[in-house]
Amino acid sequence: MIVVTGANGQLGRRILEQLIARRGGASGIAASVRDPGKSADLVSRGIEVRAADFDRAESLPAAFAGARTLVLVSTDGPKAQRIAQHASAIGAARAAGVERIVYTSFIDVAAESPAEFAAVHRATEAELVASGLAWTALRNPLYAELLPMALAGALETGVFHLPAGPGKASFISRADLAEATAAATLAPALAKNVYELTGQATHDYHEVAAAVSRVTGKAIRYEPVSEDAYAEALAGYGLPAWLARAVANMYSAVAEGRFDRVTNDFAALVGRPPRPLPCLVQELFGSQ
C-alpha cells in the first residue's frame, strides 16, 4: 500500500495521478487529505480517501495504517508549524509500521541559508535520518508555476522586481516533479537517499524576462530590489506576513547562488530530462 499525503493539493494530486497511471489503476494506493469532502472525485474513481490532519497527531496513525510506503508531501504554513507537522507525520508513520517515506524536500537545505524553507526541510530530513525508516528525499527547485506570480503585472508595466539579485535558478513544473516522485516511489531500488531534481539549466531573471518577452511579444525587464522591499510589497498584495517574508528570503537565497546547480537526477528517475525553460514559459505565458 502507498499513501500519498496532501492529495488535494497541487503537487499531491499530480503525484497521485502519476502513481495511478504507472500502476495501471488505483489498487493499493490511498489518498491522505485534511478535508475528505473535497475528494469526491477521487472516491468516485475507487480511490481510498483517508482523513489526516497534520496538526492533530492522533489522526495520523489510522491514515497511514497498512502503508508500506508513505509519500510525504511537504505542508504549507509558518516554519515552526511545518517542522512540527512533518515530525508528527514521520513519528506516526513509524508507529503505523510504514517501511519507507518518500519526502518532497527543497533544493536548499543549508544551515547558513537565509531561506525559511531551507530550515523547514533541513529539520525534516534530519527527522527522516533519525526515524530508522528507509527514506528518499526529493529536493525540488523552484516551481515553474511561480513565474506568473513573480512577473505579476509585468505584462502591463514592462518591469518586475525580485530580491534575487544576479542569482540563477532552475525551474520545473509540478507535473514533471510529480512524475519524478512517482518514479522514485515505485522504483524497486534507488542508488541513494537524496535526489536533487533540478532543471536542465539555470537562468537568472534577466534571462527569464527575455524568454517571456519572446513568447508574449511584450518588452519585459527585471529589476532587483531588497528583500525587505519585496516582502512589504507582497504583504501589500494581501499575503500573510510570514508567507511574504518566506517568499522574499527564498529569493535572497537565489541571490546568494544557492539554487545555481544542475544534476542529472531527474533523468535518472524518469528516463528523460525535464522540460526546459522555453517550453515552460510557452505553457505558462503563451496565451497572454
What's the structural blueprint in terms of helices and strands?
Blueprint: E1 2-5, H1 10-23, E2 29-33, H2 40-44, E3 48-51, H3 60-64, E4 69-72, H4 79-95, E5 100-106, H5 116-131, E6 134-140, E7 142-143, H6 147-150, H7 154-157, E8 159-162, E9 168-169, E10 171-172, H8 174-186, E11 194-196, E12 203-204, H9 205-216, E13 221-224, H10 227-236, H11 241-255, H12 265-270, H13 277-285
Parallel strand pairs: 1-2, 1-4, 2-3, 4-5, 5-6, 6-11, 7-10, 8-13
Antiparallel strand pairs: 9-12
Helix pairs in contact: 1-8, 4-5, 9-13, 10-11
Please give the count of helices: 13
H/E topology pattern:
EHEHEHEHEHEEHHEEEHEEHEHHHH
Helical proportion, percent range = 40-55%
Strand content: 15-25%
- The outline comes out as globular
Mean pLDDT: 96
Low-confidence stretches: none
Give the N-terminus to C-terminus distance in angstroms. 43 Å
Integer-rounded radius of gyration: 19 Å
- Widest sheet: strand ordering: 3-2-1-4-5-6-11
The beta-strand count equals 13
Helical/strand content category: alpha/beta
Major sheet description: 7 strands, parallel
